[in-house]
Amino acid sequence: MKFLNGGWLVRDGYSVKYAANIYDADIDRDGGKLTLYCPFGSPIYNAGMTLDGGILTIEVTSPRENVITTRLINFRKDRSHCPKFQLNETNPAVEIAEDDEKWTFTSGKTTLEIAKDETIDFKYFFDGTEIAHSGWRAKGLVNDPSGRLHVTEQLDLGVGEKIYGLGERFTNFVKNGQSVEIYNEDGGTGTEQAYKNVPFYMSNRNYGLFVDTPAKVEFEIGSEKVSRVQFSVAGEEMTYSVIGGGSMKEILGTYTALTGRAPLVPDWSYGLWLSTSFTTDYDEQTVLDFVDGMAERNIPLSVFHFDCRWMKELEWCNFAWDENKFPDPEGLLKKLHDRGLKNCVWINSYVGQKSPLFEEGAKNGYFIKRTDGSVWQWDKWQAGMAIVDFTNPDAVKWYQGYLKKLVAMGVDCFKTDFGERIPTEDVVYYDGSDPELMHNYYTLLYNKAVYDVLVETKGEDEAILFARSATVGGQQYPVHWGGDCSSNYPSMAESLRAGLSFGMSGFGYWSHDIAGFEDEATPDLYKRWTQFGLLSSHSRYHGSTAYKVPWLYGDEAVDVCREFVELKAKLVPYLKSMAVETHETGLPMMRSMVLEFQDDPTCEDLDTQYMLGSDILVAPIFREDGVARFYVPADPAAPTSTWRNLITGTEYEPGHWYTEQYDYHALPVLVRPGTDPLNVK
């Protein structure tokens, strides 16, 4: 939220008051809490100045070692009906000290120094090195033109400092200069909107910032005050944590220890997933023709995905197979299993009015309601659709009951589509949750409900989703894919940028629609995106109006598909070893170059190449002429050693840029010196 008019004035319709200094403080060493009381406007010099001005209460605590949490409070409100992220708090021992100049609060190697001065000054250190600072006119309250109150805070943005993360964002990988709203929306991949918003970023100055609320958080990253990162939340309070570490890897590990880490996923999920696509016509014969066509062309297939139209139109979701197309669904699923395949079916959390489930859900109070007690409905997506209320335990059991019937039929996993268009006005939840806070939080309840079914029926080792929406903690219910991308090179590049940001936000696995979702891909794009897709953690062909089987894009597309499916199959032991690292440390399988090579300045801005795990560098090709421009970093453990192309065997000196042309059977996929990803035991 921007509220300033240049460096000195406030925008028309806005008003702002800043916390001035710290007038008083309470130290609770047994409880590990430092509480500060700060007047607004100007420092208090006498008792008369304590009248009519108000104070900002600041509580400093630590939920885990090296995490220092600050809660800014204007008026204390009842928050019992506010959904909140479930954090893994350990309540570590902290040190709180005071002298004539400052208070210090230390958790692990991370220390906050708070000056006793006429202005509020917060300095954060890790192992003695300053990592973040909040100073003059940083903490305050803003009234917007509607009269709504917002709590705001700012941290300095230093020279050369760069900010990463904030969820799966399709904008520039480095977030400096951007205004970012943490608010889940279904906007495709070509806009500043995002399906997966996470109020967490990392700085290359070795700190992370997590705003602990499911509410809309508005970030201004050098976009209002160019030397500050500003963030604000509507309401009477805001809680945020500064996470210290020796590297961004270490910070990401601490953040995921706090918010949850990705589980291991089944081995078969690393193979190729083939979809029917979205609005295409298909029936049992179409499915078998696709599956058998892949086998006839010697292309290994792992999962077949049934998109929306396994159910009747206008009845999404009814969880019932369209008997005109699939008269024997159990028999079809058995045929797929007999061919060695797993299967996935599309679902969402919406129920159209024509669905037989609508009356049942409405009668029993299983849907989100309006304030007048009626079912909340609209026509965007399905006619008269309602939304399942996952705050109602009975609604969760009801929804899960239909999924369990599908699993009993032979369904192996679910694509949990949507979950972003969740209303905030004229809305009542079963448990009384604040609708504005439920907008982002809803996806967590939705995906958890589905994931829990698979854990219960399949076991933890076999549970996996293909999810679109997410928020903090959603990394515990993988896998996520990148949403509705277009069939062109810019969209392929924006998808990669988003995946890299997603990985910098605590999520371990990521996929995307190979060859693009919207429109029809050219044979050239199909082959280039196939290379990229099969060198991602998870790989799926999917589209909107066009089938994505390779033979429709030419004989060479068949060959390229086969070659890269086979390459990925050889890499599965390596990918599994990387997944263990993801599960244990929170590091993503697809890593930005700066995350893996933080000390190399050239890597700070790279968003057209990435590391697949720790040992494979991938630079997808984004041009019809087959030209790739890529950078080879120096391995800190072997700074002069060469990298080797996994496909061609060509060697590359570190510390250089290369521009090369490739046919469709190769691309820059380089192996880190001293490693052999094809021979991981």
From TrEMBL:
Belongs to the glycosyl hydrolase 31 family. GO terms for biological process: carbohydrate metabolic process. It catalyses: Hydrolysis of terminal, non-reducing alpha-D-xylose residues with release of alpha-D-xylose. This is alpha-D-xyloside xylohydrolase. Keywords: Glycosidase, Hydrolase. Residues 263-576 form the Glycoside hydrolase family 31 TIM barrel domain. It holds the Pfam family Gal_mutarotas_2. Residues 58-220 form the Glycoside hydrolase family 31 N-terminal domain. The keyword Mitochondrion does not apply. Residues 586-675 form the Glycosyl hydrolase family 31 C-terminal domain. It comes from the Bacteria. Its EC number is 3.2.1.177. The gene is yicI. One of its GO terms (molecular function) is carbohydrate binding.
